[in-house]
Amino acid sequence: MITVRLARPDEYERVGALTIAAYRALAVDHLFGGYDEKILDTAARARSAAVLVAVIDDHVVGSVTYVDDPASEWNEWTEPGEAQFRLLAVDPEAHGRGAGVALVRECMNRASASNQPILIHTTPWMERAQRMYERFGFVRRPDRDAAYEVWNDADYPDLPPEWVGQAFLAFVWEPRN
Ligand SMILES: CC(C)(COP(=O)(O)OP(=O)(O)OC[C@H]1O[C@@H](n2cnc3c(N)ncnc32)[C@H](O)[C@@H]1OP(=O)(O)O)[C@@H](O)C(=O)NCCC(=O)NCCS
User: Of 70, 74, 82, 112, which residue is least crowded by CB atoms under 10 Å?
Assistant: First the structure.
């Protein structure tokens, strides 16, 4: 059985490590610009958003950060009233067991309870996540994409060449209340 709940402080290190492992398993580097260090600081994230975990047989196998406070430092590119989730990740060793689905479902339950749409951004190399979002009824919204010129304002010195010109791809889900 899969349980989804808030991460406990003694699980923060595990959350950071599994998130890094899941992102490292993607076909292209997603951890440039110091994102790895930001991801590993789960305690800071938990102060401004809800860090959720998926637990199977007492093992934390996945995590997602749910953001519904517009003032959160993890909120990005939303419009007023929208919720969001970030850093959806499942330990590569636990892929395909339903943890990702359970984490997204919990985000949808939370957004339904407050009657908020969910905006998320994904990347061209997150095909598995995109299949899951589409099955859940998330709709691709190119008009809400974060264009290369928008997110690359920092001129990252370690930007992998594959990212040049790429947008972050937006999906929106509307609760049916
Ligand atoms: C995307 C990601 C979170 C999915 O996690 P996961 O736990 O492997 O996903 P799930 O098992 O819940 O579901 C994904 C697949 O398993 C299937 N599945 C779901 N529940 C299942 C179950 N109980 N039994 C068997 N299969 C199941 C789904 O139909 C889906 O199939 P498909 O992807 O092969 O078409 C994971 O691949 C990951 O960490 N990716 C890297 C990070 C990433 O891309 N994050 C997205 C950020 S926007």
Answer: 70
Q: How far apart, in whole angstroms, are the C-alpha atoms of residue 102 and residue 86?
A: 15
Domain count for the chain, please give it: 1
Q: Which of 97, 103, 135 to mutate to test the pocket of ligand 1 (most atoms within 8 A of CB)?
A: 97
Residue 156 contacts by C-beta under 8 Å, 6 or more apart in sequence? 32, 33
What CATH number has the domain bearing residue 64?
A: 3.40.630.30
Residue whose pair of structure tokens reads 């957004």 in the numeric block: 111
Q: Which domain holds residue 64?
A: 2-173
pTM to 2 decimals?
0.95
CA distances from 79 to 123, 133, 159 (A): 20, 20, 28
Tokens of 99: 């943890």
Instruction: Convert the pLDDT of each residue in 116-147 to its tens digit.
Output: 999 999 999 999 999 999 999 999 999 999 99
Nearest C-alpha to atom 42 of ligand 1 is from which residue?
89
Protein residues whose CB sits closer than 6 Å to any atom of ligand 1: 22-23, 26, 62, 88-90, 95-101, 120, 122, 126, 128-129, 131-132
Distance separating alpha carbons of residues 62 and 89, to the nearest angstrom = 6
